[in-house]
Amino acid sequence: MTTQADINREIAELRGSGGPQPRRDYPPYRSSMLRYPTRDLHQVDPEGVELWAPCFGAADIDDHEADLTVQRSGEPLGERIVVTGRVLDGDGRPVRHQLVEIWQANASGRYWHQRDQHPAPLDPNFIGAGRCLTDGDGVYTFQTIKPGAYPWRNHDNAWRPAHIHFSLFGTDFTQRLVTQMYFPGDPLFDLDPIYQSVTDAKAREMLVASYDHSVTAPERSLGYRWDIILSGTHRTPLEES
Amino acid sequence: MSFAPGQTVGPFFHLGLPYEGGNLLVPAGHPDGVRLHGRVFDGQGAGVPDALIELWQADPSGQVPRATGSIRRDGYTFTGWGRTQTDGDGHYWFSTLLPGADPGRRPFFAVTVFARGLTDRLFTRAYLPGDEPDPLLDGLEPDRRVTLITTREERGLLFDIHLQGEGETVFLSYPRQAR
């Protein structure tokens, strides 16, 4: 069985090799081996629908979907947190009234998912999925529980650092992003082949939220701030509706 | 300005992303409806049972839909956007309308692929079969070009996606992306 020391060596060899986006061919993440395209991506100028993103609106979502702590009858276990930030496009403009979706493990590191066999307790009061729309300044806000780290089967005694999965849309199709938000100072960062699939240290840091006392809810929740910058839009200002 | 890196959707995305009716851009059985479907394959030709496919397209007249309501569909409004997961065989399907395009252009569906094991999303196009010239298709070798063209069937269109290896689908990047 591959050990953590083996994986650490592989991670070290590939450090800095891949630019600011994750390497698609990243052997330390074993599940990637048969699933990455071997040919270079073909660059194309976006046209038609690719110059636009799908629209979501208030009718698509209920307000309470942004609060993952009130979706069941009781209070979930764990550390309550606010996670908030702005979604910006590659030119620094806020992405307004656009969909943000998240999913995560509970405080014990267990997902509400049939395929999660980690023998940590499910929490009947925490499912771990939420949605919201950004406001007029591109701000999203979720109330949730700090997720736990959890083991996985990439190699012997592999553990994922605590994270929240984020799904984001921009103002054109090409800006689509699914990523993961991490918590500052996690001791598992150096050991994790998914986090390290982004081989550029500065780019990886963009995935780490900051603790922000100003977004806490007194006597209820601690708070984290995480701004998300998408790639640039291909539409010219004249095409903006 | 640098932008945030992607990360894999992992194995548990079903918790957060797919939703009831996500694959029904029009109700199944709609008089003008077609089934766009196919399988997602890995580098050994096995179906990928934990992939997620998103579809984004023009309406039949070639207009880009600007209507909300893709998550809570009303059954009448064509929003042009859908999302579905693959099943145990790696198969996915959408009920939708044929996209149009500007005159002389070849219509296509814009497709985004996510999967456990895929560190970042992949973009591609699923073109309707046809004769119109197209700058992307015309610039590809024939064996690569065919990976982007749907096959017409009695009730719809087939579009298989090969992540790796023989018949590997052409995946796209756009000018404002790093790679």
Tell me the layout of helices and strands.
The complex is a heterodimer of chains A (241) and B (179).
Chain A: H1 4-14, E1 42-43, E2 80-88, E3 99-104, E4 129-133, E5 139-145, E6 150-152, E7 158-160, E8 163-168, E9 177-182, H2 201-205, E10 210-211, E11 222-225, E12 228-229
Parallel strand pairs in A: 2-11, 2-12
Antiparallel strand pairs in A: 2-5, 3-4, 3-8, 6-7, 8-9, 10-11
Chain B: E1 34-41, E2 51-56, E3 81-85, E4 91-96, E5 108-115, E6 122-127, H1 135-138, H2 142-145, E7 151-153, E8 156-158, E9 161-162, E10 172-173
Parallel strand pairs in B: 1-8, 1-9
Antiparallel strand pairs in B: 1-4, 2-3, 2-5, 5-6, 7-8
Main traits of this protein?
heterodimer, A: 241 residues, mainly beta, five-stranded mixed β-sheet, four-stranded antiparallel β-sheet, 2 helices, 7% helix, B: 179 residues, 10 strands, globular, protocatechuate 3,4-dioxygenase activity (chain A), dioxygenase (chain A), Intradiol_RC_Dioxygenase (chain A), Intradiol_dOase_core (chain A)
